[in-house]
Amino acid sequence: MKRTLLVTLALACAAPGFAHAQRIAPMKAGNFARLCTRATSAGICDAYIGGLTDGVSLSKINDRNEGDPSAPAGFCVPTTETMPVMRSKVLAWLKAHSETLDKPVGESVFAALHASYPCSVKK
Q1: Which CATH number characterizes residue 32's domain?
Q2: 13 in a domain, yes or no?
Q3: Is the pLDDT of residue 119 over 90?
Q4: How far is Cα of residue 15 from the mean position of the Cα atoms in its chain?
Q5: pLDDT by residue (tens digit) across 40-65?
């Protein structure tokens, strides 16, 4: 009985580690770049970039609609920036960093936005 309790407790303590796994889109950055260069799919590309941008911005907000304003931001896109400009910056970054084209799209687009829209560091 004591052994069963210890095993159950050990499994319960280990379980939260599995809860942090997140789904990663299977699309590669190279396929995304090809999609973004077609006029017929520019809207899909813009929606993905906008969704990633929103997700990063909203990731500081918890389930009580509270956030940590001191948490570092991954990138800072000005509110006046247009989606076509954002798309062109992401595509230019991907073109300049061809080693990332086999990586997951989210990782590469995040890196492109991070490089293209750095945040001011407050001292």
Answers
A1: 1.10.890
A2: no
A3: no
A4: 25
A5: 999 999 999 999 998 888 776 666 66
